[in-house]
Design a protein that fits this description.
Structural class: mainly alpha
Distance between the termini: 36 Å
Largest sheet: none
Order of helices and strands: HHHHHHHHHHHHHHHHHHHHHHH
Shape: globular
Number of strands: 0
Strand content: under 5%
């Protein structure tokens, strides 16, 4: 299993040649800080949309989604269609606000609304999640795929090699190089995934009836009972919107594409394009995993499902294309997280302490920072091998960390919450998060992590309100800050974006109904 032929190597080589050509073209001039971090705020609709999609499609999809579907069924696709709805909300209500504010990072906006302490706190948490979960998870997934085809490759050096390659062109071209390479990577990814889905479906004679006969009925249901161990309906209702809002709105490595758009209408349209693309993983990544549950019953780890499908069903040439798509997805997430992490460090920590620093010097420090982050992520990535499943590793950690951040972000948008109450409420929420996470590890409770996310969100809202009452007049919100925020929050997308979002919601509802 896993042998490649000359044509497969040729396809892989062609992919890397195209990638290098694109990087060279967009990095002919060394970018300054604005170019390095936000591509000069010049990204178009297609680049924003495809880059948003490609930066997300990595370990949580190509490796994690098919593996989770092999184990538990299509309910794991709830993360994907919920992401589409969140992106539609972002396109209409959040993107116009962020573009009008002309911020470079999401923590920067929170700092304007509340305080520098709140800005640094969110930035530090985002950096932790980006490095330990997103970057390291993507490196691990890439190494796992390569090891299937090249069993002699050691895990740690392979993670390091992927990190160095992505780090080189990220440091050279910044967000512009990242975004434009993401476009070609997204196209290759979608093409390869589509071909593999068709090939695996051929094992069922291209008959949906034959598939239904061989797969357990519950594995073809999106909406699962409250006691379902994979994803109960209550978790889908109250937890996934919280996780999705953080990921697609507050997570710097995703939102950076929106911030780099040329204007609010472009950002909204780009977010909508990404939302439509997010409906595809159900068919291109999840259903192949469900089909694999009827084909493989002897796998030891769910993380090997998608690579195994490639090795067993993809013919010569197509195997190389799909492998290129997998590597493209891994690279797109690694380069995205590296660029965003560097941006957070430079803009939220270095620049506030040195406000007179020149743009070219800030960009140079940002490039150095990229390579430091490469080293840290490459060191941590092999540790993920000790977790039972890549998807569980990512989602459970997010579920305990991000709900308090989402709560304070939304309260900052739509209430007059004071700065100290916001900070103390967020800290209270994270104290509860820590207690809940320790409880899981100790076996004190078995509440599903998506339900926990919704509960932590609600608890943080209550905590912020309680702190506001306790502090009283000592923590009155700055009237100018509140007024500016309310005006910004009142800005909504253009009519075409609102119409597109409405159509997307209707199509998503129909899809969920069919697979209910």
């Amino acid at each position: 299993m896993g042998s490649l032929h000359a044509l497969d190597y040729a396809v892989l080589a062609a992919y890397f040649v195209v990638l290098i050509v694109i990087v060279v073209r967009v990095t002919r001039v060394s970018p300054d800080a604005d170019d390095l971090f936000l591509a000069g705020r010049s990204l178009g609709v297609g680049v924003v949309g495809f880059s948003l999609f490609a930066s997300n499609i990595s370990s949580t999809t190509l490796i994690g989604l098919p593996g989770a579907a092999w184990e538990t069924g299509v309910s794991v696709a709830n993360y994907e269609w919920m992401a589409a709805l969140v992106l539609a909300f972002t396109a209409v209500f959040i993107a116009p606000m962020l573009i009008k504010a002309r911020v470079t990072t999401i923590p920067e906006w929170l700092g304007r609304r509340f305080s520098p302490a709140m800005r640094k706190y969110l930035s530090a948490i985002t950096l932790f999640l980006s490095l330990v979960l997103d970057t390291a998870g993507s490196l691990y997934a890439g190494a796992l795929v390569l090891k299937l085809f090249f069993p002699m490759l050691p895990l740690a050096p392979t993670c390091a090699a992927i990190a160095v390659f992505a780090g080189l062109y990220t440091a050279a071209g910044g967000l512009r190089a990242v975004a434009y390479t993401d476009v070609i990577q997204a196209v290759i990814l979608l093409g390869g995934a589509l071909m593999l889905t068709i090939l695996v479906f051929g094992e069922f004679d291209y008959s949906w009836s034959a598939l239904i006969e061989r797969v357990e009925p519950e594995k073809l249901s999106l909406i699962r009972p409250l006691d379902d161990p994979a994803l109960p309906w209550l978790g889908t209702l109250i937890g996934l919107p919280i996780l999705g809002f953080y990921y697609w709105t507050m997570n710097q490595y995703v939102s950076q594409r929106l911030l780099g758009a040329r204007d609010a209408r472009t950002a909204g349209r780009g977010a909508l394009l990404a939302a439509w693309l997010k409906l595809l993983p159900l068919f291109l990544m999840v259903l192949p995993g469900v089909m694999a549950s009827a084909l493989y019953t002897d796998l030891e780890r769910a993380d090997t499902v998608f690579p195994r499908l490639i090795a067993d069903f993809a013919p010569v040439g197509i195997s190389g294309l799909i492998l290129a798509g997998l590597l493209a997805a891994i690279m797109s997430s690694v380069d995205s997280t590296l660029n965003s992490a560097s941006t957070l460090i430079m803009v939220d920590f270095v620049q506030p302490g040195r406000p007179q620093i020149e743009a070219h010097r800030l960009a140079r420090l940002g490039r150095i920072c990229v390579f430091v982050l490469v080293a840290l992520a490459a060191i941590w990535a092999p540790m993920i091998d000790h977790f039972p499943g890549l998807f569980a590793y990512l989602q459970q950690t997010f579920s305990y960390v991000v709900p308090p951040l989402v709560a304070v972000f939304l309260l900052g948008l739509y209430t007059r919450l004071g700065a100290r109450a916001a900070l103390y409420g967020t800290l209270t929420g994270h104290a509860l998060s820590l207690g809940g996470f320790v409880g899981v590890l100790a076996g004190w409770h078995e509440v599903h992590f998506t339900i926990v996310a919704g509960l932590l969100f609600a608890a943080t809202v209550v905590a912020c309100g309680a702190w506001q009452m306790a502090l009283g007049v000592r923590d009155r919100a700055d009237e100018a800050q509140v007024a500016a925020t309310v005006r910004a929050a009142g800005v909504v997308a253009t009519a075409d974006v609102r119409l597109g979002a409405s159509v997307l919601v209707a199509v998503t509802a129909l899809m969920v109904w069919v697979f209910r």
